[in-house]
Amino acid sequence: MAIDWGVYLSALPILWVGTIATLQISLCAILLGTLGGLFLGILSLSAWSPARAFVRGYVDFIRGTPLLVQIFLVFFALPVIGINLNETWSGIAALALNCAGYVSEIVRGTVSGVEEGQSDAAKAIGMTRIQTIVYVLVPQAIRPMLPAMTNELISLIKNSSLLSVIAVYELMNAAKGIIATDFVPFQIYTLVAIFYFVMVSLVASLSRFVERRLPVW
What we know:
Helix content: over 70%
Strand content: under 5%
Shape: flat
Order of helices and strands: HHHHHHHH
Number of helices: 8
CATH class: Mainly Alpha
Largest sheet: none
Number of strands: 0
CATH architecture: Orthogonal Bundle
CATH topology: MetI-like fold
Radius of gyration: 21 Å
């Protein structure tokens, strides 16, 4: 099979724009998902049983349903309740809600793993349960939390390709547009794989760089 190198040259600028869109979507989703996950994770550690039950139900739903179904639910449900977002923000919302479920479990697991004596010391000086979690346990859990958070960000970058089903313009959608015009799926999907691989490799390298510089408690 002859390779048309001109296809690669014409596709690169379009895929680059799609890559920037993918990174923007992923960063927005991971930021919102992390904030939501921290809140849910702290709730799951509270002494209030209804809060723990709510978080457990939310996490079970997120883990028990496909992300693609969650994307469709958010995309079609929001207009029904009067929230009109465009395709991109609907996709970001779906990814963030999914991310929050997994981040909450990361937070719960790592914070619970901090030495129990830290909680006892905080209690001895008069800290409440929430103050102990926020000011004592969470800071000590950041370093062990980072590898799992990195895996979640990597998964989110790759899963953002599912947003093409609701017409969000990102890397995969850009690739589909090129293929529909030039009919060269092998060449284009090879480029797409390289773009995703580079993005994921950069995220992993940055995570290792940051982890080496975080304090060990």
